[in-house]
Fold:
Amino acid sequence: MAGFRSLARQVRDPRCDLALRRYSLRKCLERFAPYGHRATWDHLCSRAGFGPEDRSPDPARLVAALEELEEARSVWLAYEVEFAERRRKEKHDGLRRPGSVDDWHRLTWGGFGVAWCDDPRVHPREPLAEVLRRLISALEREPGAECPVCGGERLVWKYELDHEPSTGPVCADCGILVPRPVLTPEALADARRGRLLMSA
Structure:
């Protein structure tokens, strides 16, 4: 099975058939898809300027979509290296019990669904790398009451999500499943009660 980098080479290779180049970009999403496969594909297509069903997109647009995906992947892989180093140090120092961020991180290892969007048409508009930087920053500071990606305060508890966990707070503005560790207990309780958090 081809890895992300070999698939990326096929996307860039002008000697490859255009259908193969498009297919290879789609296959990259099996290795790394921050919003989930369908939502990440929709995001990349809209940002690069071709339709999700376009069977013969401009090769330059395919490469632009790939470059956005690669930048985001490098941001996430750097975070995973730092995360692993921190856990090694904590274990060395006697801290064996992982925290809530660690529990969340285990579900997203490799970057699949780190900012899950259950509706593939509703996702952040910013570049993927910027979204991941904001998410990582939120994971490294004290919990708050708003979406770490868009700053939205309208968080709604959703059930039967096509993801693990299958329930949780979803931002009504940008559509991501907000990681529980970045929210205060009060924000989580408000989302569970169905109260939209409105700005003062």
